[in-house]
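Are you able to produce any protein sequence you like plus the matching backbone structure tokens because I've never seen that pairing?
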Amino acid sequence: MSNKEISRRDASGELDLPAFETAILGEIEALGLPSEDILVPVRQRVGVLNQMGDVLEPVDTAARSTSAYLSKFMAAVAAGLFDAALNYLWDETVSSVRAKAAAYDLNYFFDQAAPPGSELRTKLHGPDDMRLIDDQKLLLAANRIGLISDLGLQQLDLVRYMRNHASAAHPNHVTLRAPQLVGYLDACINEVINLPLAPSVLQVRLLLTKIKAAPIEQSTAAVTGGGFEEMPREQADNLALGLFGIYTRPGADTYVLENIRLLLPYLWEHVSEEARQQFGTKARGFGVNQQADEFALANEFLESVGGQSYLPDDLRIPAIDAALDAVLTAHHSWSNFAAEGPPVRELGRLVGDEPKVPRAIQEKYATVLVYVFLTNGSGVSWSANPVYRELIGKFTTRESAFALNSITNQAVANRLHSTLAKEKFKELLGILNLKVVSGARRDLYDALVAWPEADLSSAPTAPKIKRLLSEARRVKSTTRLIG
């Protein structure tokens, strides 16, 4: 629209707003309906209409041709119904967000709007299902993937508030003025309808397309992974969530899953701790909802980056317990020097780089590691000993207390008759030195350090050690070691 003054066109008869107002209000009054404060004054309407050309100038012809709600917005402004105009403006904004999301990657958008495994997410399949997402969730999801800027989200939140409290969408007695309406129009145009995608957002869209298109080579994955270093942390979190959604959606092509497993290790180091925790929570949701396939895929996703430690305790306890049993089984096998390595490395993956062992299984965890670390007396497992040392070196103070108390475990005590096991127990005490700090436990620790190595097998039954164990409040190990 030209910026030529509407008031001048009124004089020529092109658009006579005062005459229209007189006519429509006359009809209203003739029907006995209220006519006061129904229409916005003509000068306010003229103020908006005269600025429409400038505000719409950045929008290209193709986009304008499909913006039906902007046409209704303009008609409502001309009629003096600013509350209705605001409602149409909001409808245009929401329609634009939906169109942008569908053109970007619909499933990726759905995963941002509704967590994988949630009841809402199970209902989102195609563009028509966008209507199931309320406006607030819609805007937040669009912001997460970069379809709306952070500043734009704040501005649109105000528009949304005014739409709910000052538009025709709900009963109200608020009067909108021309500058307000023009400001809201400008925000919706510049922050949604005409907002270009940032380079990082385009990068994600290209990556999602590539993942779904064909198998990716390892060399390509490495190059692509290098680009994650420049990705904003929030965008990395959102991409990881999107990949999780793709991976845990049953029916995905095998090569798609393989592509994600190739790329995920490069992305994972840039994912925030908060986002990592969410994946464990989502996996638990699959388990609670008895979605066995999704749950298995979620575990597989976390396993590909050694992220099983992010599973909630109620899911991790059985897995850690089974891993400890596998370590014991390997330890008791005839080829234990080689056999112990794989299960203890799996145990390490389950507890994490910074081990997080649920309290309910800490005693067994500490006792088993002490038991296997002491060896079977015939030699040290070359495949497992470095991992044993690493895990013991990361014991918490509570796990360290259980390690000291393990001398009351019959299986551990029996080991202390072996010369090699005695040497390894003294080595164990050296590893635990800085982890035992409380008075009673430190006294127990110091007594064991001072105990003659040759006579170490007598320590568990010695009155002094028994007294110190009692003072440390863990008198006897309750962990059973089978083999």
